[in-house]
Amino acid sequence: MAVVNVYDIERNKVSELELDDSVFAVPVKEHLMYDVVRMQLASRRQGTASTKGRSDVRGGGKKPWRQKGTGRARVGTIRSPLWRGGGIVFGPQPRDYSFKITKKVRKAAIKSALTLKVQNDKILVLNDFHLNEIKTKKFKEVMDKLELKSALFVIDKANEELQKSSHNIKDVKMMLSEGINVYDILKYDNLVLLEPSVKMIERALLS
Questions:
Q1: CA–CA separation, 102 vs 37, rounded Å?
Q2: Cys-Cys link to 177, which of 32, 104, 194, 197 (CB 3.0-4.6 A)?
Q3: Which superfamily does CATH assign the domain made up of 2-46+98-206 to?
Q4: Which residues pair with 188 in a beta bridge?
Q5: Nearest alpha-carbon partner for 154 in 123, 133, 121
Q6: What is the tens place of the pLDDT at every residue in 19-70?
Q7: Which of 160, 134, 194, 187 shows the shortest CA–CA distance to 6?
């Protein structure tokens, strides 16, 4: 099993932790990560884009001029797609862009993303992270001590002080272990895990 150092928020090594190879040392399958990220982004799309066809545009019920004898092209309605103010041909309509991927594939993709972070030495395990108050400045000071600029923090339980203190810092996201996903793991340069959350992630991905 891979062994990583466990640090405190002063970046002092306090212990070591064994990572389960079946979660943090699997073959990296980029095509699975691509599919899962595509699924996540697709599900975020509102799908509300809408245009009016010629039958939806108001007006145009009367033929603007007679069929023959004017020297002009024949026209049945001023709401033709050829006219300004007319309908749109094959325009977008409201739709659902989301699609599903099996749970097995999603778990495999998360394992690949976690393995990638371990291979690139972009994973940091903290024994604890506690703030006495909601203070962005104090959270930023901890970030500086840990030498982090872009990071995804994964915590084992809800922590109002941490979650609100980190909310306004650019390139930082705080989430619970059960919400971990491929897109956020890959989006941020570093993955910061609280020690208890490591075991929770392993249990969830091996179940």
A1: 13
A2: 197
A3: Ribosomal protein L4/L1 (3.40.1370.10)
A4: none
A5: 123
A6: 999 999 999 999 999 999 999 999 999 999 999 999 999 998 999 999 999 9
A7: 194
Over 80: is that where the pLDDT of 1 sits? no
Residues 193/124, Cβ–Cβ less than 8 Å:
yes
Structure tokens at 55: 């039958």
Q: Are strands 123-126 and 190-194 parallel, antiparallel or unpaired?
A: parallel
- Asked if residue 169 lies in contact with residue 136, where contact means CB atoms within 8 angstroms, the answer is yes
CA–CA separation, 52 and 94 (whole Å) = 11
Confidence at residue 188, expressed as pLDDT on a 0 to 100 scale? 96
Looking only at Cα atoms, what is the longest distance across the chain? 94
> What are the tens digits of pLDDT across the range 127-160?
999 888 999 999 999 999 999 999 999 999 998 9
Q: Any alpha helices (H) in the chain, and if so which ranges? A: 21-24, 30-44, 103-119, 136-145, 160-165, 182-187, 195-206
3-state SS, residue 124:
strand
The DSSP secondary-structure symbol of 8 reads: -
Is residue 2's pLDDT more than 90? no
